[in-house]
Amino acid sequence: MNVSIRVDGQEVFHGSLFSVNVGIGKYNGGGMMQLPEAIPDDGLLDITIFRKMSKIKVLANVKRLYDGSFKTLPEVSLFKGTEITIESERNVWLECDGEMLGHSPARFAILSSGFRFVN
Length: 119
What we know:
The chain is mainly β. It has one helix at 55-61; strands at 3-7, 10-15, 17-23, 45-51, 76-81, 83-88, 93-96, 99-103, 106-109.
């Protein structure tokens, strides 16, 4: 199934995916560094796109999710932006840390007038 991904209005990917991650922090899922270049307070969303790859390659590289070194794989692309949209031919289910959020199409955006918290 084809998925189209846009970052700030520009298509950065169209094709078959293994996985995609969007967020502002480096870590999720028990310490996996799926967004290795994310900076929580830079005002940008990070996205990691894992193009379709063989099950053998996935299994051989699982350990690389914990140190971010997977980003050198040819099937992986990293982007930053203030708005990310994901569209697909059929619904793609979205989850957030194990909880179902719904399905595509999806739009993620940074709210520039959000709250600022100070510790």
